[in-house]
């Protein structure tokens, strides 16, 4: 299969998006130290997790070291712009740095994808970044509803260097929330394998172990987007937890939960208003959708931060060895779990199968409806 050359777009390479200085004065709070590795968006699941993380940081319950961005849901340049505005909107722009990662996967180019999907059709048709033209300059970017960031800048250090340096600075302490394609993590551990035993754990939203995929009939989007990176990272001898479609397919936000965020007059903020604007189409009858009281939608990435903060949110887990298919074809990106007799080289990990949905949605609603901007701890 033809491979794209991976571009680690350093901050200076993002034309028109100025680079910030290193965060020598960043205040690190209590709680687990976390890197959020994300194909960021304004306020879908990645952006929602960003809100939850900043609110938890304000309570001193988590220490978000930084956000590393990778292409996936959208192209890198757009994801970076959305992440910068997200942190600025929340009042965390000078405290939680945004780091620029890989623009292309280690596997898949567009010609291969088109050929593969034509030969093996099915799935929901969602291609993420591959479904839209790649932005070549800032003029091609789409602004969030409240505009681009005006004073929050990307960091000079690349995402890969930031991951490596953070793990070395805090050996045995850093959890990576891997909520997008795994290209950044694969590159970091390829280039600096010495950090592998220093990583505390990786918690993924990815894979479809015992259920159908979404992008294709067999593969979940995050791992399908870069299956080579997924296979490499899953084989690392690190503690790993997988939050796959097996569980996210069972955690459905209904209209009552949506209304608690979008329509509670006592908790209206820029976040709740934007949540309504960007996520209300199935609940409020917008954008060609009719109002349907039975409409539901899955939640995905936000389950990972809930699990990190309290693993008892998971009411059913299994421990299996997990692999990802990297061959072009019907099973490209397919995840497989082995309960016994795994092939050589795989790592055993925890797979979340069911969640305490009611308790999770109370947690989710609370964090998404707290006051904004957030008051983070001071020196």
TrEMBL record:
Q: Which UniProt keywords apply?
A: Glycosidase, Hydrolase, Signal
**What GO CC terms are in its UniProt record?**
cytosol
Phosphoprotein recorded as keyword:
no
| Annotated Inosine/uridine-preferring nucleoside hydrolase domain residues | 34-362
Q: Which domain of life is it from?
A: Bacteria
Q: What is this protein called?
A: Inosine-uridine nucleoside N-ribohydrolase
* InterPro entries, A to Z: Inosine/uridine_hydrolase_dom, IUNH, Ribo_hydro-like
Q: Which GO terms describe its biological process?
A: purine nucleoside catabolic process
Q: Where is the signal peptide?
A: 1-24
Instruction: Provide the GO MF annotations for this entry.
Output: purine nucleosidase activity
What PANTHER family would the database entry show?
A: INOSINE-URIDINE PREFERRING NUCLEOSIDE HYDROLASE, URIDINE NUCLEOSIDASE
The organism named in the record is: Paraburkholderia megapolitana
